[in-house]
Amino acid sequence: MQTKHVVALSAAATLLALTVPTGLSFAASAPDFTQDGFPTVVKTITVSPTAAATIKAGDITISIPAGTFSQPVNFSLLEGPVSKIAMNEPAGMQTFADFAFKVTETSNNTLVTTFNKPVIFSITNPAVNADTEYYDISPSGQYALNPIPATISGTTLSHAIKADTVAWAVADPTVPDFTQHGFPNVIAKTTFTPGQATSVSANGITVDIPANTFSTPVTFELLQGPIANFTANAPSSQAPVTDFAFKVINNQTGALVGKFNAAVIAKITNSQINSASKYWDITPSGTYQANPIAPTITGDTLSHPIDAAAVGWVITSPAVHQATSPVTGLPIAPILGGGAVMVLAGLYLVVRKGAVH
User: Fold this and answer.
1) Where do the domains of the chain lie?
2) Could you tell me which CATH class the domain 183-318 is placed in?
3) Backbone dihedral region of 324: left (phi > 0), alpha (psi from -120 to 50 degrees) or beta?
């Protein structure tokens, strides 16, 4: 008898599964993101099973192909306060956009969490770049990097979405402001317009900026710090010759730009540069790291390509060490020099005395 009940229940479950329209799920298992951090309904449209539809709001577009749903639905685009969503963002990332969906069947307001076909999310924003990341946001607000990388073209990021069980956030790596990290002086700056090459130059440092370096207008600042700031951490037997860093500001958003579409070329001319000079990355904490790409050195000019503003730079040359006296601890060179002068003076007097007599 118990076996019959099991069979009957299984048959009923199978029948129920067959009668539930594809692309729908029960409200008990579906998060309502208006209650989970995304309270703002940006836009709602009604989508029929046989027609394609598009939601466009600000810099976000949702493209919904025909056949995405088996029943008519109300499709809402939601947003949450970025400042609150970003409280859980991964270290080193800065969220600049977030969104979620609320999809309900028009006939009974049942929440829909799976789609027959993926909808396509896209965002066109000056903050989008090659390093932008696309995150899933759980109903509890936790970030998880989406396992499928987003497609990025210029300042547009897009991604396919076939389920509504998480929300999403778009974030960039944070960019250090090197005026606060050892390079306080803006020694030169220029305004870059996409499609127009330019350069910036000061104190023997010239930076050539190709026409395709940035997709949006930016202010490009050349920074420098007191060279003495970089002496304490300098590698053994190396003496800092000069230093520099960049601060690049997106003129549309005010955000710092950390990644370049094309490398700029830094050329540094200094009388202390020679074939033994070295080119170092300087982290925001002031630590020296050997740049993996050797610089090009011609005479007293060193050049190097740069495609990001995540570190500063210092050029060093071999340090010249003066020998010291084991008795006095003073540099020997001045002592020897003084002794030589005295010897020469003595010889002069002897010769002069001989000439007189």
Assistant:
1) 21-173, 183-318
2) mainly beta
3) beta
Q: Give the three-class secondary structure for 11.
A: helix
- Count of C-beta atoms within a 10 Å radius of residue 187: 15
CA-based end-to-end distance of the chain: 144
- List b or e across 201-238, with b for residues whose CB sees 16 or more CB atoms inside 10 angstroms: ebbbbbbbbbeebbbbebebbbbbbeeebbeeeeeeeb
Write out the H or E segment, with its range, that includes residue 307: strand 301-308
CA pair distance 53, 204, nearest whole angstrom:
57
Residue environment code for 258-280, b if the CB has 16+ CB neighbours within 10 A, otherwise e: bbbeeebbbbbbbeebeeebbbb
Q: Which residues of 21-31 are buried (b: 16+ CB within 10 A; e: fewer)?
A: eebbbeeeebb
Does domain 21-173 fall under CATH 2.60.220.30? My reply is yes
- Tell me whether the CATH fold assigned to 21-173 matches the one assigned to 183-318: yes
Q: What is the H or E stretch that residue 355 is in?
A: helix 332-356
Q: How far is the C-alpha of 313 from the C-alpha of 297, rounded, in Å?
A: 16
pLDDT at 8 over 50: no
Q: How far apart are CA 112 and CA 32, in angstroms?
A: 10
Per-residue burial over 84-111, b if 16 or more Cβ lie within 10 Å, else e, is ebbebbeeebbbbbbbbbbbbbeeeebb
Residues, the chain, total? 357
Q: Which residue matches tokens 């370096």?
A: 213
Cα three-residue angle 286-131-78, rounded to 5 degrees: 120
Using CA atoms, how far residue 25 sits from 31, 101, 222, in Å, is 11, 14, 56
pLDDT digits (tens, 9 = 90+) for 274-301: 999 999 999 888 999 999 899 999 999 9
Average pLDDT over the chain reads 85
**What confidence score (pLDDT) does residue 131 get?**
82
